Amino acid sequence: GEGVNKDVAQAAKYYKLSAAQGNAIGQWRYGLCLYNGEGVSSDLAQAAENYKLSADQGNAEGQLMYGLCLRNGEGVPRSPIQAANYFKLSADQGNAEGQLMYGLCLYRGEGVGKDVAQATRYFKLSADQGNAEGQWRYNFCPHD
To answer: What is d(CA 100, CA 80) in angstroms, rounded to the nearest whole number?
Structure first.
């Protein structure tokens, strides 16, 4: 809705066209439309597929969203190990939400070995970017 009337169906149409051309941001954005049912019918399997396409091109947001699908079993079979791998990819690119999610995996031992010290490090990275849950979690972890 910036400079034009808001039209989620049109936005979804253009994200789909971008995604079909292999654009990682278009794939991620079209995945969001599919996931949330904005401008198109909700389709978790297609959302996950678009997130994966985006993620595998190195898009940190796509990596985060595909990791969430894998963690929750939304549109794909649940896989804590793969979820942790995608969260780490996102986190290591500086994505604050990815850092939080990978920190949670480490803290809980979900998909990776439990490592509170490393979890604390990822929570701090997230917290330092202003992520409220990262700040909250960091507050309760042992640190200097």
So the answer is: 15
pLDDT of 143 > 90? The answer is no
pLDDT tens-digit readout, 66-114: 999 999 999 999 999 999 999 999 999 999 999 999 999 999 999 999 9
From 23, 56, 19, 55, select the one nearest 34 (Cα to Cα): 19
Considering the entire predicted model, what is its pTM?
0.93
* Cα gap 77→59, rounded to integer Å: 21
Note whether 122 and 91 are within 8 A (CB): yes
- The CA distance from 93 to 97, in Å, is 11
The residue behind tokens 């439309």 is 33
Q: Distance between CA 6 and CA 41 in Å, rounded?
A: 18
Token pair 């992520």: residue: 131
